[in-house]
Write a structure and sequence with these properties.
About 70% of the residues lie in helices and about 0% in strands. With about 220 residues, it is an all-alpha fold. The longest helix has 30 residues. The N and C termini lie far apart (about 80 Å).
Length: about 220
């Protein structure tokens, strides 16, 4: 019985947290970061001010949570770094995860908030980069380094390669959405964009095949 109550309380706490971060994101977009108070967020989320202040004593702490949770959204779905050994399979997995991540409306909203508020609140940009994009980028870089070290790829500069790969996907999935409100490519088109990025990476970074030994006479 105690375990059931504990699980119930955890679910309620998570629901309240999600309500707070969702309300905050919407208000930051609508009113701006500076024009949104924690009290207004609590009202929009349907929670008491004491509940919100206990979890997020400042707007900066709340925005930090939004950034971290946005970039770690798939962490609970077995989203560990792919095993080395099959570069095509690994890149395909990484590519589709990234397309799903940056293609979510919540990620678009996060980028829009940061870009709009950057001149007055540069710390929001630093949070977005240091807590979100950089750790994700680094995980892809480390995956490519592991494939290089195992001899499954020829990637002398994994940082550059990770930037190229993620950039190809973001240039189709994310950035048009920032400027075009009706940009909503079909799932099949996103799939094709990822596959094209994988093919480009394989053409550039797959190890050269050794010639088959000549048969003995």
């Amino acid at each position: 019985m105690a375990a059931e109550l504990s699980a119930h309380h955890r679910r309620l706490a998570q629901q309240k947290r999600e309500a707070i971060t969702t309300a905050a994101t919407e208000l930051f977009l609508d009113r701006g970061y500076d024009g949104t108070s924690l009290a207004r967020i609590a009202e929009a989320a349907g929670v008491s001010k004491s509940t919100l202040f206990k979890r997020f004593p400042t707007k900066a702490a709340l925005f930090e949570a939004i950034v971290t949770e946005s970039w770690q959204r798939d962490a609970g779905d077995g989203a560990a770094r792919p095993q080395t050994g099959d570069l095509r399979s690994g890149l395909t997995t990484v590519g589709h995860r990234y397309a799903d991540l940056v293609g979510r409306p919540g990620m678009t909203a996060l980028f829009r908030i940061v870009i709009a508020e950057l001149p007055r609140f540069p710390e929001l940009g630093r949070m977005q980069f240091q807590l979100g994009k950089l750790p994700y980028f680094t995980s892809v870089q480390h995956y490519l380094e592991s494939e290089h070290e195992a001899g499954n790829a020829d990637v002398p500069d994994a940082a550059s390669a990770a930037n190229q790969f993620l950039g190809m996907i973001a240039n189709y999935v994310l950035w048009p959405r920032m400027l075009l409100t009706d940009w909503n490519p079909a799932a099949s088109d996103i799939h094709d964009a990822v596959e094209q990025a994988v093919q480009t990476m394989l053409a550039r970074y797959a190890p050269a095949r050794r010639p088959d030994p000549k048969p003995e006479r």
